[in-house]
Amino acid sequence: MITLQGFGPAFGLPDPSPFVTKVEVLLKMAGLPYVVDTGGFSKAPKGKLPYIVDDGEIVGDSTFIRWHVEKKYGVDFDRGLDAEQRAIAWALEKMLDEHLYFALVHTRWVDDANFDKGPRDFFRKLPAPIRPFLIPMIRRQVRRALHAQGMGRHSPQEIVKLGTRSIDAAASILGTKPFMMGAEPSAVDATAFAFIAGALCPVFETELRTAAERHDNLKRYVGRMTARFYPERSEIAGCQAAA
Ligand SMILES: N[C@@H](CCC(=O)N[C@@H](CS)C(=O)NCC(=O)O)C(=O)O
């Protein structure tokens, strides 16, 4: 049995981390039984979530988890795609993982109002006296990480411009297709669903959310992915589940 280490549902999303949601959807796509555990952050092999424990084997990072599942269980998430489609899917996935992600982190962690509505809640289980020290410290770490990565050097308006371009690109790639690469879901849909749902999350007031809301095809896509992979949910991120 596979244990997926994540943060647990938050903000109406399967997980606040798009990377955890991505892995959960990949496991669902692969039809593998799994359980979610939220107590494993301190043992994360790369200091980040998600990671999985598969029969004692620990695999960290959503991409390495995908490759582990493909190799160990003989799954090809991209079956039916030719080399060019696989390359486009990879490029789209990495645009979301390595670019849109940091714009979303900025909107949730740097903007005070959004932080108060969202990430501040992660600290509610900590003893009250240490919260006033720890919360600003962790926010400083996030700001430093954004600065080191580069996104954090831009103004909020510039970050919105960059993130909007990625959201628009995802909407254009989807076009009128049911899923990113065609009639059936492939690996990139696990990522795209996680990030687009994260961008559309109604908890946060952001111009990136407005940018995503402009695309009806993205909203219907989140609803379609919800119907397929979270059939127990009537909606995710304000998008009604519908096939
Ligand atoms: N490349 C990693 C990224 C994972 C990641 O950035 N996880 C974040 C949550 S969204 C995390 O655990 N951050 C905690 C930290 O950096 O301390 C993947 O694909 O799994």
Number of DSSP helical runs: 9
Q: What portion of residues belong to β-strands?
A: 5-15%
Strand order of the largest sheet: 2-1-3-4
What would the average pLDDT be, to the nearest integer?
Answer: 98
Unreliable segments of 5+ consecutive residues: none
First-residue to last-residue Cα separation:
29 Å
Specify the overall morphology: globular
- Count all strands and give the number: 6
Q: Largest sheet, described in full?
A: 4 strands, mixed
As a whole number of angstroms, the C-alpha radius of gyration is 18 Å
Q: What ligand molecules are bound, each kind once?
A: glutathione
Helical residues, percent: 40-55%
Report on this model:
By secondary structure, the chain is α+β, with helices and mostly antiparallel strands. 54% of the residues lie in helices and 8% in strands. The radius of gyration is 18 Å and the shape is globular. The mean pLDDT is 98. The chain has helices at 18-30, 62-73, 83-109, 112-117, 131-149, 156-174, 187-200, 207-213, 216-229; strands at 2-5, 34-37, 51-54, 57-60, 235-236, 239-240. The chain has a 4-stranded mixed beta sheet, with helices on one face. Glutathione binds next to helix 2.
Short description:
By secondary structure, the protein is an alpha+beta fold. Helix content is about 55%, strand content about 10%.
